[in-house]
């Protein structure tokens, strides 16, 4: 890849919403410092927006509604902050195929098409950077693919969606239910008008796919990620977690799983989890993000900070932009895709998990033994049992040891049909040490 002609790095900015506006502002206000860090001036050559007349605060001579033409123009780097898959995918492929480096925060696109984008970048020698796609301002992806490149990562588990963390943290703090807490999150601006992508886990699943791909050198897509949201988490679930010294978080969990025969696979999942209050992730409140990484040599690492917002995300974008600009100035290349391990993705049913099961059962002798027998019949070992008697009924809480998720699900289905079980009140997966 040749150096930039004239030593000026020309940047096309696609999209100028909350994050894009901050990127444009910082490119202008910090031009001198960015030039010093990159080794050449970094010049904003054009901004593509849907309706230029709606952006009077931006330099009007830079605005265009023709993103495709801007990508094709004489620019060196394309910064994409529009989101979505089409037509953005074609614009970025065009840029990469023409040797223009790309900086993007587009998690949905990367979670489905990172292989295609990476191959285009490799073919032309261009860079593809995407730090802002996961966890906003937190430096996370670059440590995974650079700082820890010589280590063997075994697990990446974290809070990567601020909306759901705000809701669950508020439920834990106030005792309120899901619906009223979601309304409060919307009123305060933490939840979108349509919160589906957040509360149903789609956003976190896209991020989990990116994290698993980087951590385990394996191509993982969003469709490979098991996904459950938080809409079924009740105030009673939160209370039950508190009684066990735990709290509930929506976690993205990516881990390297070894079978009995020594073969390895990748598990990637997003769902609500009970974790001990002593776990580092348990204290992460509000709309903050945090990711816990386990590696053979480095041990346990934690990355924490602002997971969203205009200025924090713009910080990650500009960090990538400086790195890309520096590479172009000196003729270097950034890290390439690493998918050499090509591990299979393990289905959720075969993934070892643990369950917290709350039952309403008949208050009579032998009930616990009958329920325990059903767990044993499915090959599921019980780690802890708590029982509380009420008038004519009893509350039974069971926490299991690790077992294949399918076996645990089959156990819950079977005990729900037992005559002595009035209701399966709640079921939630558990991470961390036994209580």
UniProtKB/TrEMBL annotation:
CDD domains: ACT_HSDH-Hom. Residues 356-429 form the ACT domain. One of its GO terms (molecular function) is homoserine dehydrogenase activity. Its EC number is 1.1.1.3. Its cofactor is a metal cation. It catalyses: L-homoserine + NADP(+) = L-aspartate 4-semialdehyde + NADPH + H(+); L-homoserine + NAD(+) = L-aspartate 4-semialdehyde + NADH + H(+). It is an enzyme of class 1 (oxidoreductase). The active site is at 207 (proton donor). Pfam families: ACT, Homoserine_dh, NAD_binding_3. NADP(+) binds at residues 14-21. Keywords: Amino-acid biosynthesis, Methionine biosynthesis, NADP, Oxidoreductase, Sodium, Threonine biosynthesis. Catalyzes the conversion of L-aspartate-beta-semialdehyde (L-Asa) to L-homoserine (L-Hse), the third step in the biosynthesis of threonine and methionine from aspartate. This is Homoserine dehydrogenase. It comes from Amycolatopsis endophytica. The lineage of its organism: Bacteria, Bacillati, Actinomycetota, Actinomycetes, Pseudonocardiales.
């Amino acid at each position: 890849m040749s150096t930039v002609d004239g030593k000026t790095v020309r940047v096309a900015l696609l999209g100028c919403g909350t994050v894009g506006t901050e990127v444009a502002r910082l490119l202008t206000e910090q031009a001198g410092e960015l030039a010093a860090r990159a080794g050449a001036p970094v010049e904003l050559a054009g901004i593509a927006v849907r309706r230029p007349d709606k952006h009077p605060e931006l330099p009007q001579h830079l605005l265009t509604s023709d993103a495709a033409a801007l990508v094709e123009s004489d620019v060196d780097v394309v910064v994409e902050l529009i989101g979505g898959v089409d037509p953005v995918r074609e614009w970025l492929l065009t840029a990469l195929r023409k040797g223009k480096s790309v900086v993007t925060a587009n998690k949905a696109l990367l979670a489905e098409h990172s292989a295609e984008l990476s191959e285009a970048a490799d073919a032309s020698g261009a860079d593809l950077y995407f730090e802002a796609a996961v966890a906003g301002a937190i430096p996370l992806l670059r440590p995974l693919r650079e700082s820890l490149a010589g280590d063997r990562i075994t697990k990446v588990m974290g809070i990567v969606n601020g909306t759901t963390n705000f809701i669950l943290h508020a439920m834990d703090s106030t005792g309120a239910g899901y619906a009223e807490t979601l309304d409060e999150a919307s009123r305060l601006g933490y939840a979108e008008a349509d919160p589906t992508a957040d509360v149903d886990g789609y956003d976190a699943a896209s991020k989990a796919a990116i994290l698993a791909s980087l951590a385990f050198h394996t191509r993982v897509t969003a469709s490979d990620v098991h996904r459950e949201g938080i809409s079924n988490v009740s105030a009673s679930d939160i209370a039950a977690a508190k009684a066990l010294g735990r709290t509930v978080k929506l976690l993205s969990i990516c881990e390297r799983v070894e079978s009995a025969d020594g073969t390895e696979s990748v598990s990637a999942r997003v769902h609500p989890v009970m974790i001990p209050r002593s776990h580092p992730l348990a204290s992460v409140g509000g709309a903050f993000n945090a990711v816990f990484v386990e590696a053979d040599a480095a041990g346990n690492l934690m990355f924490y900070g602002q997971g969203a917002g205009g200025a924090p995300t713009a910080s990650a974008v500009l960090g990538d932009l400086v790195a890309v600009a520096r590479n172009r100035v000196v003729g270097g290349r950034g890290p390439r895709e690493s998918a050499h391990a090509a591990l299979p993705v393990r289905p959720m049913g075969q993934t070892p998990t643990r369950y917290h099961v709350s039952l309403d059962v008949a208050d009579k002798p032998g009930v616990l033994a009958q329920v325990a027998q059903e767990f044993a019949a499915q090959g599921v070992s019980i780690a802890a049992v708590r029982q509380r008697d009420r008038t004519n009924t009893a509350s039974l809480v069971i926490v299991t040891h690790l077992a294949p998720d399918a076996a645990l699900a089959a156990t819950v289905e079977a005990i729900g049909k037992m005559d002595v079980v009035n209701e399966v009140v709640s079921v939630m997966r558990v991470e961390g040490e036994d209580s």
